[in-house]
Every structure is written in C-alpha cells, then in structure tokens.
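User: Hi! I have a protein structure encoded as tokens and I'd like to know what sequence might fold into it. I'm fairly new to this, so please keep things simple.
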C-alpha cells in the first residue's frame, strides 16, 4: 500500500454491532494536520478513510460544530468488492480570523461518530487595520483625536503615528499600543496623518487622513446701529491658523421665515472682503425682526456659522397714502371719508392727518386720530374746497394723497365720489385719430417690407446675387455668389444625416467649411479609428497648409463620432498662441461609407508632438543637443496655454508631452482635447464612467475618486515638466501602472532628473502636493517659469543648433511631423527600435514609419534651420 500502510497507524477500527456474520471497519488513513496560513489566502484540509462495507460519508467539524455548508469535495474509490477508499478535501477560500481553530473529520458508522485526530489551523501575516484615521475638518487651535486599530496574528501589534510623513512616536511607547488614539492639541495648518502597524511578520500602512484646518467660529456678533431700513453689525473673527481670512458671508432672515430652511429662503446673503469685520445690511423692511449670522472663509474652507442673533429695524413712516377718498358738501357741512393706506405701514399706525384748503388761502392741518371719517362745520357754504389725507406713525407722516375737490351733495345720484382737482381728458379727441393713422401706416409698411424681403430671399436662394453693376463700365454683369442662408440649409441637412445630438449640431454650424475648399495630401499618421493627413485649405484667395483629422466612420459608434466632433467644438473658442485652435469642420462624402464622415481641420504642426521630438533628440544615433533654455521655454509655453485654458474654466485631464505640439517656430501648443471638460458649476468634474486613463500622469485624488479639477491638471503639468527635463523618459520607471496609487500614497514622487535646476524641481514638487489646495495655480507657474527663463545665462553660442533630418534614401526631403493629437502613454524606444506605437482611440494617430532623426551640428548662421542631411553636415537649406 505504500503511504497508505504508513497512515494505518492513524486509523481507527470500529467493528459492526449488527449481524455477527458481517464485519464493518473504518480506518483513517490520513487526517487533517496542523497548518499555519496568512489572512486572505486559500486553505485546504484533507482526510482519507478506508472502510469495509458501505462507502462512508465524511463530514467536517470546526471547534466541535459540524460544518453543514462546508465547501468540501469527496472522492469514493472501490478497492475491491468489500472495501472503499474515500478522500475528502475541505476548501476555505480567503481565510479569515473566524476560520482559525481545531478541525476534525467525522464518519457515521452504525449510529456512532468516528472522529479523526484534531488539527489546528493558525493564521498569521502582516497586520490588518480594523480602524484607520479618517479625514477631518477642524478649527484652528482646536483639540481633536484620531484612532488607529490594527490586529494580527501574530500578536502583538504596535502602531507608529506619522504627521506629514514624520513619525510622532517609536515602537515600545505607550502610544504604540493598539488600539491607539492620537490626541492632537490643535493645529496651525492642515496636515496629513497616517499610522504604521508592526508585528513579527512585517509592517502595514494605513490610509492617509487629511486634517484640514478651517477658521474658528466668529463671535461677538453685535448690532452697532439700526435705522428703519438698515442694520449695522460687527463681529470678531475666530482663529484661522496659518491661512488668512479672505471672505466673510453674512446672512439675515426675517423672524417670520423658518430658520431651518434659511439656505433656501434667505432674505439677505452677502459675501464680504475682510477686514474690516463689519457690514451694513441695507434695503430691509422697517419695524421688522431679523436673525443674523456670520461665517468666514480662508483658502482651506469655511468656519462654522455663528449662532443666530436677533435684531430689529426701527419704525418707519407709512409707504403709501390712504385710498378711496371721498368728500362732499351738505349745506354748511363737509363730509370727508377715506380707506386704509395700501402696503406696509412700517410701524404702529397712530392716526391720520387731514389738510383742507380753499383756493389760494393757507392750508388747515388737522389731526383726526384713527377714525376714517371727519365732518367739518363751516359758517357758510364752501366753494373750491380741496382736501388731502395722510397716515402717520411714531416715525412721522407718510405721503399725502392727491388733492380731492369737495363736490356738492347730489352731483351724481348714484355715486357721491368726489372728483380729483385735475380735469380728465375727453374720451375722444383729435389726438386719438393721429394714433389710429400712425398704427395703420406702420402696419402697411411692415407688410410691404416682409413681402419684399421674402421675394428677394427666394430669388437669392435660387440664383444668388444675380446682377451687380460693373465698377468699370457701369453695366450690369452676372455675378454669382451664394447667400449664407443657402449654405446654412445645406449644412443643416448634411449634419442631420450624421445622427448626432441637436446641441452638438448647433455648435458645429458656425465652424463648417465647404469640403471643396480642402485638398488632401499624404498621410501623416494613421490609427485604428482614423488618420491625420496633410492638406491645403483655400481661404480668401490664399492657400493655407493644414492638418486634416479624419475618422473611419464605418467602424465607429455614434458615441465615438460625438466624442470626435465634441473635441472640435471644444477647440472652436480657443484663441491663444500656446493652445491648438480649430480652423473648421467639413463633411466628406464617400461612396464606400454611404453617408458623410466628419473631417476636422487644424493648423499644421511642422515638428509634430513634443514627446516624439524629445525622444529623437536623445535616442538618435547622433543626439541632438537641447540647451536648458529650450527646455524651460517648452515648459513656459505649456504653462501659458494651460493658464489660458484654466481661465476659461476648462480642465484638460490628459496633459502630457505627447499631447503638446511644436509649430514651425518651435513654440509648444497644448492640444488633444478629447478628454477636456468645461466646468459650468463648481470647480470640479467627476468622471461618470470608468475608462482607460494615463495613470502615470493623473493626480492622486483623481486615481482614488475619479474627480478632476484644475489642480489635478497642475499635477499632470508637473509630470510633463519632468518629461521635458528628462528628454522624454517615461515617468516612474520600474513602477507598474497598478502600483502607482500605492506608490504615491506612501509619499513617493518622481526623482530630480540629472542636470535639472533645483528651482525647476521645486516647481515640479509643488505640483505634486498631496492636498490640491496647496498646489500653485497655472498663473503662478507661468510667472515662475518666465523668471527662471529670464535668469538663465545666454547660451555660449545661441545659434549653435542645426536641425538635420536624416530619412532613408531621401536626403533632400523635409521632415514634417504634422500629426495632431497625441499617442497614448509610451515606453522609450531603444536606438534600434522603430517609432513608438500604442493602442489608438478615435482622437489618436500613429506617427509615420519614416520620421527621420535630428542631429546637432554647429552653424555660423543667425537662425537655426531644418536641413536635410548631406556629407559633413553641408545640407540644402529649407525654411524651418
């Protein structure tokens, strides 16, 4: 039996208790054995049973409890007519702490359990965290606590706390016992906290928690002065730590408003530049109670709001005069009546005042109290008598009503309403006829103009402007020119056939170009979804060299087409020397594809993308010398372009050297806006779907949460600076894409390139700050790079670079790397490798196979020139 015979020593023999003529026995040839594993690994325990009689069923027991749903696999093999061999394997996937303990196999024989020996499953490995420090917002100088709890096995586990990467304790300190609570007695600036857990197997690192220091709650909010329509308030700011206060927000809500919904129904909301810490709330309602609160903000965040403080405006005068005034005379009595004033009384109504005046005699003012009627007794009947009424509060008199003429009783048997002093105009007068005539004439002119324009439009649509006078002979000559309206309807019909959204069609109409004005040349680069070709555009009598970006419409989805056209729309409003600008879009009809395919027309970029240029300068057979001034100039150009884009609220999301182009004057332009987004609300964009992204250029917060901001573009710009400083090396050499996030979370960053200025590397490091708010803006980066560029000494021979293109068998052909858009992330080629290739998207192209290589030769000429190779660097000149 071999190994089975040696395992018989572990077996257990049970004799049958039934028919004495039949024996039944069970032997455990192999039982589970003690095992030590690590958390998360898959574990298997096995046991083998030899039985005489019926084949046995094997069950498993964990800590004396039968595993009813155990993931076990049994194999029963007959050895002869009476004997069976049963093997059972218990599989425990991704073992956890609850799986530790003793295990046994059990076989039921004649109503009795037969058990194997007990085996113990022990677990050990690196510590794992049951509780990690969490992100927090704390007020400056305020105490707070963080907690970190780690477990083995093996035990014990000790914890070291780190603040901004610096250890706060050592192993063996009381603080290192887990669970560990870190009590922080106030911070002056925002910091990161993490903990490291150690046991006998090694060390684990927790997540990094960001503790953001926000200003303290303002206090002492008081009312300085109040009027009937304003409240002057002042307050004292809370501590703000290392970050000065920038803005305070003051809110006021009427007491009648529900304070719980003040964010939706706030009556007054104002942002204030501070100091001073005071403000006058104006345009308030008189004699009204308000609740006021204040919050202040630094660049790190907002302070808590103060508690609501009750304040009240002073009493004001009524806002309107009483209405419905009637006055009539009955013999020597004058009866005056009026109604309440409309609108807000702005206080407590104390009564009314009445003014009577006869002719040019002085006015008589009477306080009549809160009554709405006053009877005046005269010595004789009064004529030409007028009255006026006003309401008043403790703050003074409101506006007076219009003067009303007292009418004799019986003036109108149906209404004793008094007549105003002003005479009403007659119902019909000669002015009315002028109005009727003017309206009729205007209507007739409008109809004539509409008919005339309709006929002219129809004629122009059909023939264009058919006849125009000759400037030389004064005769009519045929001159055909299609109106814009004709082109617009044609374009609209063609765009409709693409099946794109109405919003995208509307944006494209203003950039459409007639296809017949574009002539295509050689292909500069081709990919899976499209290609880039050299072209010529006839425009305003001139011929412009352009790059024409096409897509293979037959293999693209509607979404990919919309993405392709959205990139063009994204570029149409750009106008900056360091940002690629759209020239136009046209539609190309092909018989094979059946319906129009879109074509994007872009400026021709003579020297191709920056990444390829840097690679060839370093890896060519004769390297091209790029002085530091040139490299810093590339960085400055890109920073200038990104400063412009950020001012337009655009986030690029794919900034890299491969997506920056070099034009004829060696100026770098930001390009490839396939992933760009405009931020309409707020200051961030959250990616709604998971897609392939260049992880080595993406900010750490974007890797974690797929949230993109202008500050995440700043991170990518820092990586692009590193690419330029290393002449096209791939970032994080030796680190896999799947390891990048953990690598960055542990505080690692790109190393300083050889020969890189300290000032440049400090700028790069500032772009990679963990907290996006600590990264500089593109405006600051642009200014800093310009200062560095100006501070660099002039090159020993400023015109020492001669660009030479060496193509296979084509010594006189000029290399024109005119592709637009960039390749995906690449690895640097060896000197023997062909130009790099990568997986293509609809917005990407490959460079042509024969791109040439650039070498350096000294030249006495004033300007650097792009030449073709000839012996001894004596080459035929061609304009760079």
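Assistant: Happy to help. Inverse folding works backwards from shape to sequence: for each of the 880 positions I chose a residue that suits the local structure. Here it is:
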């Amino acid at each position: 039996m071999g190994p089975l015979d040696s395992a018989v020593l572990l077996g257990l023999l049970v004799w049958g208790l039934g028919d004495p003529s039949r024996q039944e026995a069970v032997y455990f040839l192999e039982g589970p054995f003690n095992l030590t594993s690590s958390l998360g690994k898959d574990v298997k325990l096995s046991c083998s049973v030899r039985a005489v009689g019926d084949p046995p069923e094997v069950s498993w027991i964990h800590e004396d409890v039968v595993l009813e749903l155990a993931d076990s696999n049994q194999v029963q093999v007959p050895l002869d007519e009476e004997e069976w061999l049963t093997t059972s394997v218990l599989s425990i996937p991704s073992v956890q702490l609850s799986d530790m303990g003793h295990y046994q196999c059990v076989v039921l024989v004649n109503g009795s359990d037969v058990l194997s020996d007990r085996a113990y499953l022990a677990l050990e490995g690196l510590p794992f965290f049951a509780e990690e420090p969490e992100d927090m917002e704390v007020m400056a100088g305020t105490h707070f606590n963080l907690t970190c709890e780690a477990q083995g096995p093996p035990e014990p586990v000790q914890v070291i706390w780190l603040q901004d990467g610096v250890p706060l304790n050592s192993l063996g300190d009381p603080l290192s016992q887990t669970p560990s609570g870190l009590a922080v007695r106030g911070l002056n600036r925002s910091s990161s906290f993490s903990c490291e857990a150690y046991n006998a197997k090694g060390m684990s690192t927790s997540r990094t928690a960001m503790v953001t220091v926000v200003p303290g709650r303002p206090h002492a909010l008081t009312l300085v002065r109040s009027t009937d329509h304003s409240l002057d308030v002042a307050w004292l700011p809370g501590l703000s730590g290392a970050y000065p206060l920038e803005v305070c927000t003051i809110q006021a809500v009427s007491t009648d408003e529900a304070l719980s919904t003040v964010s939706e129904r706030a009556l007054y909301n104002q942002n204030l530049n501070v100091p001073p810490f005071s403000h006058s709330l104006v345009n308030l309602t008189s004699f009204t109670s308000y609740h006021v609160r204040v919050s202040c903000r630094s660049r790190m965040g907002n302070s808590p709001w103060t508690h609501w403080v009750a304040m009240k405006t002073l009493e004001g005068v009524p806002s309107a005069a009483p209405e419905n005034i009637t006055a009539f005379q009955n013999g020597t009595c004058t009866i005056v009546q009026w109604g309440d004033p409309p609108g807000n009384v702005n206080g407590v109504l104390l009564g009314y005042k009445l003014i009577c005046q006869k002719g040019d005699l002085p006015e008589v003012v009477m306080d009549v109290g809160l009554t709405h009627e006053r009877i005046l007794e005269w010595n004789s009947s009064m004529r030409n008598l007028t009255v006026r009424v006003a309401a008043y509060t403790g703050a003074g008199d409101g506006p007076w009503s219009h003067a009303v003429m007292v009418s004799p009783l019986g003036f109108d048997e149906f209404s004793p309403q008094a007549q105003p002093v002003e005479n009403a105009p007659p119902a019909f007068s000669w002015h009315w006829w002028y109005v009727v005539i003017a309206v009729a004439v205007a209507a007739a002119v409008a109809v004539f103009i509409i008919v005339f324009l309709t006929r002219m439009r129809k004629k122009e649509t059909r023939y264009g402007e058919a006849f125009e006078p000759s400037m030389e002979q004064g005769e009519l000559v045929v001159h055909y020119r299609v109106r814009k309206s004709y082109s617009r309807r044609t374009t609209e019909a063609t765009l409709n056939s693409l099946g794109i959204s109405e919003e995208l069609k509307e944006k494209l109409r203003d950039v459409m170009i007639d296809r017949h004005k574009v002539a295509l040349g050689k292909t500069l680069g081709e990919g899976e979804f499209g290609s880039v070709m050299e072209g010529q555009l006839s425009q305003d009598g001139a011929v412009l060299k352009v790059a024409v970006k096409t897509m293979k419409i037959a293999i693209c989805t509607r979404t990919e087409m919309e993405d392709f056209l959205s990139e063009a729309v994204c570029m149409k409003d750009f106008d900056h020397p360091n940002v690629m600008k759209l020239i136009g879009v046209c539609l190309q009809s092909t018989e094979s594809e059946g319906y129009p395919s879109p074509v994007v027309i872009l400026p021709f970029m003579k020297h191709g993308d920056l990444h390829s240029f840097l690679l060839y300068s370093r890896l060519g057979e004769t390297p091209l010398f790029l002085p530091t001034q040139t490299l810093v100039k590339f960085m400055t150009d890109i920073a200038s372009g990104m400063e412009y884009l950020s001012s337009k609220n655009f986030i690029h999301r794919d900034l890299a050297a491969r997506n920056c182009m070099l034009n004829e004057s060696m100026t770098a332009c930001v390009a490839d806006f396939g992933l760009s987004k405009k931020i309409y609300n707020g200051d961030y964009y959250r990616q709604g779907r998971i897609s392939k992204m260049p992880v080595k250029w993406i900010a750490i917060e974007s890797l974690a949460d797929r949230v993109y901001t202008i500050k995440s573009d700043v991170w990518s710009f820092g990586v692009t600076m590193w690419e330029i400083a290393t002449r096209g090396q791939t970032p994080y050499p030796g680190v896999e894409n799947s390891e990048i996030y953990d690598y960055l979370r542990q505080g690692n960053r790109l190393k300083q390139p050889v020969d890189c200025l300290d000032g440049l590397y400090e700028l790069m490091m500032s772009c990679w700050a963990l907290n996006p708010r600590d990264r500089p803006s593109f405006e600051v980066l642009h200014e800093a790079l310009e200062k560095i560029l100006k501070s660099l000494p002039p090159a020993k021979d400023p015109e020492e670079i001669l660009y030479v293109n060496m193509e296979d068998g084509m010594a006189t052909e000029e290399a024109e790397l005119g592709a637009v858009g960039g390749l995906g992330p690449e690895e640097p080629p060896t000197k023997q490798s062909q130009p790099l290739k990568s997986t293509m998207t609809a917005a990407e192209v490959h460079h042509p196979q024969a791109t040439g290589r650039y070498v350096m030769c000294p030249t006495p000429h004033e300007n650097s020139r792009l030449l073709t190779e000839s012996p001894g660097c004596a080459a035929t000149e061609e304009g760079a």
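A useful reference point when you look it over: The mean pLDDT is 75. Feel free to ask if any position seems puzzling.
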